[in-house]
Amino acid sequence: MGVIMESYILVGFALTFLAAAVLYVSLKNSRNQKRKNLEKEDQERDVELIIYKREMNRLEEQLKRKEISKDTYERLRKNLEEQHQKNMAQISRSRVI
Asked: What is the pLDDT of residues 3-15, one digit of tens each?
């Protein structure tokens, strides 16, 4: 009877250890995935900001060279800002999903 009881205890410890190992690996993978998602979001934000700044600089240059009128500049600048805000909101929403 003592040997059988020891076997049950050993199996219990083994199953507990196995369950703890599975839980640890699952939590670690989850943390790594969250970190990767945050890094990806940061990269997307950086790219969006670079594109926005370049487009704004291009518009300002066109205005300085008188390639576009002040009214056209204002309209294009407003459109660019709205698109930038939409893109940033989309990046933020993609994080939630």
From this structure: 788 888 999 999 9
Domain span at residue 79 reads 2-96
Which amino acid is it at 51?
I
Max intra-chain CA distance, the chain: 97
pTM (global) more than 0.90: no
CA distances for 69 relative to 8, 53, 55, 58, angstroms:
85, 20, 16, 14
Q: At what angle do helices 2-64 and 70-96 cross, to 10 degrees?
A: 180
d(CA 25, CA 33): 12
Domain count for the chain, please give it. Answer: 1
The stretches of 1-97 forming alpha helices (DSSP H) are 2-64, 70-96
